[in-house]
C-alpha cells in the first residue's frame, strides 16, 4: 500500500470509527466508562503509586477524569500531555483540578504551566486498534513520536495503555515503521496484553476462555511501580 493510499484509507477508517463512537448514547458511555475504570483499577493497582498521564476526553472518548480523581485521592500524581511544536514529542505537565488550563489542538485543554514530568504510565486514547496492539489516532503522530523518543533516549518510557471501546477494534491498521504498539489495551470488555506481537485478553468475560495462568484477574502493579511488591530488581517487560 503506497503512503498516499494508506493515508486516505486511515482517514476514512478514522472517520468511520469516530462516527460510531459519537453515536453512543450517554447511558452507554457511562456504562463503558465504569467498566474501563474497574478494569484499570483492578489490573493496575500500582497506578495509585506513581505518575499517570491521561488525555482530556474528546468526541465521546473514554473519560479518564473519574479514575484520575480516585487515584489522586490515593496518592497518585496525574499529568496531561502538551503539544510544544508540530512534529515534536509531547511533554507532560502535572495537573489537578484547580490548576490553570489553556486550550490547545482541537481546543483540548492542557496545563498552562508546570515543569515536565516523566509518567510511569500513560492512558492513550485510540480511535481504532488492531490485533497487534497498534493504534489509529488522529494522524498527527504525537504519541508515536513521544514513545519512540523515550525508548531511544535516556528517559524512562512509560507503560502505554491504550483505552477505547470494543467498537474500535479492526483487523489491522497496516502499521508502518513509525507506529508504536501499545503495551496493553483496555476496553469495556477487559484487559489485553501485547504478547509475542499479538493482543491477548487477560480478563475474559464469563463463559470466555482465559489465558493459561490467568484464572484470576491480572495484577500488573510491578509494571507501573517497580518495588511495589518489595522486589529488588524491576522485572522484565514484554515488548
CATH architecture: 3-Layer(aba) Sandwich
Note the main sheet.
8 strands, mixed
| Cα-atom radius of gyration | 17 Å
How many domain units?
Answer: 1
Overall pLDDT confidence? 83
Residues in helices, as a percent range: 25-40%
| Spans of at least 5 consecutive residues with low confidence | 209-239
CATH topology: Rossmann fold
**Strand order, largest beta sheet:** 3-2-1-6-9-10-11-12
Count of separate DSSP helical elements: 5
Q: Could you say which structural class the secondary elements and strand pairing correspond to?
A: alpha/beta
CATH class wording: Alpha Beta
Number of strands: 12
Head-to-tail CA distance between termini: 26 Å
Oligomerization status of the protein chains:
single chain
Describe, in plain words, how this protein is organized in 3D.
There is one protein chain. By secondary structure, this protein is an alpha/beta fold. The chain is built from five helices and twelve strands. The strands form three sheets. Strands 3-2-1-6-9-10-11-12 form an eight-stranded mixed sheet. The longest helix has 20 residues, at 3-22.
Amino acid at each position: 500500500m503506497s503512503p498516499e493510499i494508506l493515508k486516505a484509507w486511515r482517514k476514512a477508517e478514522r472517520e468511520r470509527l469516530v462516527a460510531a463512537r459519537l453515536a453512543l448514547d450517554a447511558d452507554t458511555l457511562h456504562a463503558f466508562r465504569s467498566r474501563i475504570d474497574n478494569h484499570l483499577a483492578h489490573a493496575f493497582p500500582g497506578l495509585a503509586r506513581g505518575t499517570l498521564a491521561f488525555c482530556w476526553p474528546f468526541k465521546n472518548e473514554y473519560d479518564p477524569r473519574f479514575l484520575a480523581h480516585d487515584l489522586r485521592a490515593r496518592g497518585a500524581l496525574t499529568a496531561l500531555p502538551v503539544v510544544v511544536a508540530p512534529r515534536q514529542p509531547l511533554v507532560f505537565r502535572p495537573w489537578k483540578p484547580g490548576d490553570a488550563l489553556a486550550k490547545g489542538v482541537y481546543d483540548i485543554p492542557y496545563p498552562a504551566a508546570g515543569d515536565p514530568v516523566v509518567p510511569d504510565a500513560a492512558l492513550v486514547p485510540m480511535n481504532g486498534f488492531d490485533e497487534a496492539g497498534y493504534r489509529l489516532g488522529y494522524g498527527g503522530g504525537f504519541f508515536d513520536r513521544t514513545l519512540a523518543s523515550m525508548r531511544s533516549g535516556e528517559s524512562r518510557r512509560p507503560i502505554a495503555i491504550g483505552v477505547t471501546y470494543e467498537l474500535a477494534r479492526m483487523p489491522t491498521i497496516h502499521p508502518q515503521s513509525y507506529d508504536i504498539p501499545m503495551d496493553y489495551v483496555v476496553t469495556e470488555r477487559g484487559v489485553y496484553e501485547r504478547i509475542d506481537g499479538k493482543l491477548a485478553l487477560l480478563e475474559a468475560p464469563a463463559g470466555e476462555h482465559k489465558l493459561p495462568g490467568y484464572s484470576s484477574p491480572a495484577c500488573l502493579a510491578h509494571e507501573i511501580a517497580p518495588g511495589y511488591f518489595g522486589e529488588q530488581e524491576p522485572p522484565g517487560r514484554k515488548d
